[in-house]
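Reading is simple: each integer encodes one residue's backbone shape. An example follows:

___
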Amino acid sequence: MSPLRINGSPNGNVKTLGSAGTIFEAEDSDVLLRIMERPRAINVSFEERPSNELLSNHFECLSPHGRRSGFNSPRSYTSFEAHAMVGEAWENMKRSIVYYRRQPVGTVAAMDHSVEELNYDQVFVRDFVPSALAFLMNGEEEVVKNFLLKTLHLQSWEKMIDQFKLGEGVMPASFKVIHNPVRNREILIADFGESAIGRVAPVDSGFWWIILLRAYTRHTGDSSLAEMPECQRGMRLILTLCLSEAFDTFPTLLCADGCCMIDRRMGVYGYPIEIQALFFMALRCALLLLKEDQEGKEFIERIVKRLHALSFHMRNYFWLDLKQLNDIYRYKTEEYSHTAVNKFNVMPDSLPDWVFDFMPTRGGYFIGNVSPAKMDFRWFCLGNCVAILSSLATPEQASAIMDLIESRWDELVGEMPLKICYPALESHEWRIVTGCDPKNTRWSYHNGGSWPVLLWLLTAACIKTGRPQIARRAIELAENRLSKDHWPEYYDGKTGRYIGKQARKFQTWSISGYLVAKMMLEDPSHLGMISLEEDKQMKPLMKRSTSWTC
């Protein structure tokens, strides 16, 4: 097999390697090319795009082919200009852009060339989301549109792992651009899980794709992309995977370990909060994007039914506050019939000691996992923030989550925002749950590490709940170190004091997460891209206590 040359970003870095994985010839159809060149149409059914006067000063950036890329970057931001980190962050963002046939299609995961690249030279679907939001806020829509179309095109290819064919709707975890010297053209190579650690398909990629499509449509006012037959079909394929009938007795999605941001063995198999919150948000976004034609109406009906069941299940069985914790502590076991209180037969003796001290008098959160005889009481940041933004959390629950963050600031934020989960697995529990994973040792990486990218989710949740001061405080903490430390992927230690032992520098989503947080705090109207208001029709009668009654 002839060697292939990676053309990953406009900085001209080149790496030679043998071909591996599944190579996809990304030959765009004439239809897609015409769509990309079509003048933008405005659909009045979406809210008017908020004006953004903050990003008026720009500089030009050249593509690797020596032509103007069309990308602009802000140099002054009124209140932003006081911090030099913003300009530096935008410079790094531009260097991270990946081009495919002279069109920007995404950003690489990291630009740290001091260590082996592994898969950090690829465009990850979940990693690109904060980059996409930053570009949209800056009026740079082309790369987001191209990314949505390219990943949609990759979804259509046959996906095989060994002798097993994956579902048609699975979106790639990542892709990269390579140059084939024999054919003398660029092609795409995609990873649907066949190269991932543990060989797990990314459940979250499809959800992030739908959420980003809605963000693009909401921000630009352009519904023509979402209304493309290809986009409508792509959404229906994703939804078919999620809404299919099987042996489930719960409306939540059953998942394997490593299927989301936590992509290694960390005991999140079952019904992890991150996937359930993203599932809920993607369903709500799809409800806004699907056309009410014959095929669309069928899916809309199924979505509405699932949303009602899912919201009830999550708000009742995943929610934990002081009163509910006390109720679980007093649970009886081996209950039968429909009158059972302990519906999942959870053993009170399985309650971890730490949760009694962690739970404040006022506050609460969605726990990590609920399944038969199992409750994972760990706090997971992404799932709880998305629960707020999607309105899976009621206004009262959203307020309680923010109360918890304020009350447990040292534990969840510490010296560098933000803990991906809390607490860390240690000793025998770490050996059993992670399989002695040397990367997920206590207070490191996914096992209680601190991830700056989560700053944008926290900021969005803070703005939605009327607590911008919490976000401002967290951003100031990040500004003390992020730039000096060269934008690490994550930090280690109980308070996030140390740069992660295997953390890549110049991690793109650490950079973009900071930019999105800054721009959103400066102009809260950007929140509309990533936030959904509560649907009153989905609000069930709460049968369990919540912290705001304390």
